[in-house]
Write a structure and sequence with these properties.
Chain lengths: 409, 83
């Protein structure tokens, strides 16, 4: 395999994300240039981008590629100006990563999530009841996709639900790439930190047994993490704990509405919802491109190229999920697909902490949508749907839907 | 918290992975490649028994679906994960 070393690195992201489409260039790169040179909006020089399933998987599992080595280095290629100034569990390597993750891993196990299922079902029921009581058309985002994950993470973490309008604005802000200027992104990040520090301080007066209370105890009684790690952990859990699922839920329903044959299968066979969730996770590129750099701590051979020590490597999970070498007919949405080792939650030590929580919420919400809102359809022209732009994640601000009559439970 | 000193006097631990439960996150194989490997995208112990190891405990404690069970070979008592 050859890489033309004289070729100019491609500006990255390649294009502005368009709805949930995957840029066709990924297919070309997987075929002819699986490790390609890209130029990020910030930092110096170029970086590598991996697009094939096996390479993305291997890179995510490779301890020689460090996430923390890029911290506070101004030259490191990155998506936003201050990406390199925000230490969090996401860009921490073992053993510090292991220490931090272990503090919260218990709260997100499959078993704990199963215990949470009745509460999630109740929240979903309340949301759908309100939609039915109001009658069609109704906005699926404001009724279900947004309040469900926010309500769940608020209860888990111990963040007051009444504060959601405030932290929602900051949360969208910190996920901004081009939607806001760098100083505004930084202000949102600072405000979120100040807000979480306030919740931490309150727990020192009145201890709680929620996740934030557990972390405060781990700090004060066990010295298991620093004060900065504690506050940043709260920010990370709050943002990552709802933005992803909230956007994906709208994306899921949008995707089914634009693949009516697949929606019809689920309406007839709601028992297929769990595997449909896996397929939608594979099929939909939630990330708009980019992510965070891994820095090679030594020279590493990947897909026939030598990544030199100190160079930055990015991976495209959405591209990996469309790799024909890993999935039959990868560009076809097939809710009956069974063998589906997709990369939507990443791989290796940074595999999404909230994966089982996301699956729980997505399964319960989608089950309710396909069983309680028969004949579901869009209630606005597709080309008028309000897509978010310039954020790390793709999603809809609103998704007006209509359905037939009254569903009987 | 469990650590590797526990059970050390008695030698080996037993390492088991429930492959029906495993989701192939790769967490264990990345944290502790000496004890866990991915076979057909799912975790498999490198060996069924091991000397006490903090890394193996970390892997079991961090498995997102608790598919890993480490027990004392002599008594069968659970070493990790623990509540």
């Amino acid at each position: 395999m050859t890489v033309d070393a004289t070729a100019e690195p491609r500006p990255f992201p390649f294009n502005q994300a368009d709805r949930l489409d995957i840029d066709p260039i990924y297919q070309e790169l997987r075929a002819s240039e699986p490790m390609s040179r890209i130029k990020l909006p910030y930092g110096e020089g170029s970086a590598w981008l991996a697009t094939r399933y096996e390479d993305v998987r291997a890179i995510n599992a490779d301890p020689r590629l460090s996430r923390s080595a890029g911290r506070y280095r101004d030259d490191v290629p990155r998506m936003t100006r201050d990406d390199n100034k925000r230490p969090s569990i996401i860009n921490t390597d073992p053993p510090d990563h292991t220490r931090l993750r272990r503090l919260v891993a218990k709260a997100f196990t499959a078993r704990r999530m199963e215990a949470l299922r009745p509460r999630v079902q109740e929240m979903v029921r309340t949301s759908i009841d309100a939609m039915i009581a109001q009658g069609p058309p109704a906005d699926l985002v404001s009724h279900l996709a947004l309040p469900l994950p926010i309500g769940v993470i608020c209860e888990l973490l111990g963040v007051p639900y009444e504060d959601r309008d405030r932290f929602r604005e900051w949360s969208d802000g910190v996920l901004s790439t081009t939607a806001l200027p760098p100083d505004e992104i930084q202000r949102c990040y600072t405000d979120l930190g100040t807000y979480l520090a306030g919740l931490v301080a309150r727990r020192r007066e009145e201890p709680t047994d929620d996740l934030l209370g557990t972390l405060v105890a781990a700090r004060d009684e066990g010295d298991k993490l620093s004060e900065q790690e504690l506050v940043v952990f709260g920010v990370t859990l709050l943002v990552a704990g709802h933005e992803t699922t909230a956007n994906q839920l709208g994306n899921f329903v949008y995707t089914l509405l634009t693949h009516p044959d697949q929606l019809a299968i689920l309406e007839r066979h709601p028992d297929l919802v769990p595997q449909a969730v896996e397929e939608l996770l594979r099929f939909i590129p939630l990330g708009s491109g980019g992510g965070f750099p891994r820095i090679a701590t030594e020279d590493i051979e990947i897909a026939g190229v030598t990544v030199r020590e100190g160079e930055a490597v990015f991976v495209s999970g959405p591209s990996a999920n469309r790799d024909a070498a890993a999935f039959d007919d990868p560009d076809t949405l097939d809710v009956t697909r069974t063998d589906n080792p997709h990369m939507a939650f990443g791989h290796g030590v940074h595999h999404c902490l909230g994966a089982q929580l996301a699956r729980l919420e997505l399964c319960e919400a989608l089950s309710a949508v396909v069983t309680r809102l028969p004949g579901l359809r869009m209630a606005a022209p597709e080309d008028e749907l309000p897509w978010k732009l310039g954020l790390r994640v793709r999603g809809l601000r609103a998704l007006p839907v209509a359905w037939d009559g009254i569903a009987h439970d | 918290m469990t650590d590797a000193s526990q059970g050390a006097a008695d030698g080996a631990w037993r390492v088991a992975v429930d492959r029906d439960v495993c989701i192939g996150s790769g967490m264990c194989a990345s944290l502790d490649p000496a004890h866990f490997q991915l076979v057909d995208h799912k975790s498999s112990p490198v060996s069924e028994t091991t000397e006490p190891s903090d890394d193996a405990v970390d892997a079991a404690e961090n498995c997102p679906v608790e598919a890993i069970l480490i027990t004392r070979a002599d008594t069968g008592e659970a070493v990790a994960p623990v509540e």
